[in-house]
Design brief:
Elements (H helix, E strand, L loop, with lengths): L5 E6 L4 H16 L2 E8 L3 H4 L6 E5 L1 H6 L2 H15 L3 E7 L14 E7 L15 H10 L31 E5 L17 H13 L3 E4 L18 E2 L6 H9 L3 E5 L2 H7 L4 E6 L4 H4 L6 E5 L22 H4 L3 H16 L1
Parallel strand pairs: 1-2, 1-4, 2-3, 4-5, 6-7, 6-9, 7-8, 9-10, 10-11
Helix pairs in contact: 1-5, 1-8, 6-11
């Protein structure tokens, strides 16, 4: 039986960056009086649970995406049993792959939306902020009009325990790995780890504290910093704790990967490093955030089409960004914070 309130069902398992960029649009739905239920992967549930107004329904995305035929069927059947109980005004499956349609077959909804490469109204248009594009699509703005770009939406309930002791003014966080998800590696997004090492050495020489951030799968990068006196938190923090850690840093430096978007939710200044992806699409849009886009003059930049990259072996666009350029951006952001 309906309780009379409008309801929306969002299907978006991950990844971190996509989830963070979708959140402002989902909040606009909530502010319009819509109860939002988000079907998410278990990896991003701890982040979504930091938004008190949002209901989450976790699924075993590992089994749905990579499990055996039986495991997939069982996981999908459990989701079907849940989503078939209610009627929704909107059901939004935020994927291009048509195979995701099977997840919402039993869903009763007044409007069903799925990303589409052939229908402009459901396409994330190139060069535009994905956060804005998700808002346009979920709100049904077929004329494309939004009064202003949406900003990253900070969680309203984060862990209270600090990660570090002491002030943040001389603490810089680096994200030297990342750029992968459950379905594929996207290593062309990465700034070379050797450049992160150069930057860390210069920061330490200048008396800064250097912190390494990343997920459990990023441990391979730690050996590059052996004996350097950095604080290694790679794989040691839950997603909400990463935001808290960034809050306690003056600047976060990251290429286009999940922690870049988590840093965008924090109070830290951010330097985003881009090459094959367009910062116009992915850079968090708030004060204190800057982008360095390598590959100026390269006809092949950007090469990311929303799913795949070019068959590139030299990664020239990311190689073009120097540690000296990043250090200059850090200095300018630190000066802005002091003003």
């Amino acid at each position: 039986m309906s309780d009379g309130k409008r309801k929306a069902l969002i299907i978006k398992f991950g990844a971190i960056g996509d989830v963070v960029m979708t959140l402002p649009a989902v909040r606009l739905l909530h502010d319009a009086g819509v109860q939002v239920e988000w079907v998410c992967g278990r990896g991003v549930k701890p982040l979504l649970d930091c938004y008190s107004w949002l209901k989450t329904t976790p699924v075993d995305d590992q089994k749905i995406l990579k499990g055996s035929s039986l495991e997939r069927l069982q996981a999908i059947a459990r989701l079907w049993a849940h989503v078939s109980r209610a009627r929704y005004d909107l059901c939004a499956t935020l994927y291009y792959d048509s195979r995701y349609k099977v997840l919402t077959l039993p869903v009763r909804a007044g409007r069903k939306v799925q990303l589409s490469r052939s229908a402009r109204q459901h396409l994330l248009l190139p060069g535009r902020s994905h956060a804005d594009e998700y808002a346009r699509i979920l709100l049904g703005r077929e004329d494309g009009f939004l009064e202003q770009s949406v900003a990253p939406l900070r969680p309203d309930r984060l862990p209270a325990e600090p990660i570090f002791s002491g002030p943040a003014a001389r603490r810089i966080a680096l994200v030297p790995a990342g750029a992968s998800n459950m379905m594929r590696q996207q290593t062309l997004r990465r700034w070379p780890v050797e450049r992160y090492v150069e930057l860390a050495q210069e920061l330490l020489r200048r008396g800064f504290e250097v912190v390494l951030l990343g997920g459990p799968e990023d441990g391979w990068a730690t050996e590059y910093f052996a004996g350097m006196g950095v604080t290694n938190l790679i794989g040691k923090l839950q997603l909400p704790q990463v935001i808290v850690a960034c809050d306690q840093c003056a600047v976060v430096v990251s290429h286009d990967t999940g922690p870049l978007h988590l840093a965008g939710l924090s109070r830290a200044s951010v330097v985003g490093l881009f090459g094959p992806t367009d910062p116009g699409c992915f850079l968090p849009r708030r004060p204190g955030v800057r982008a360095l886009w390598g590959g100026a003059g390269l006809a092949c930049r950007p090469c990311y089409d929303g799913r795949d990259f070019a068959a590139c072996t030299h990664n020239g666009c990311m190689q073009q960004i120097t540690s000296a350029q990043v250090m200059l951006e850090i200095e300018q952001l630190l000066a802005e914070r002091r003003d």
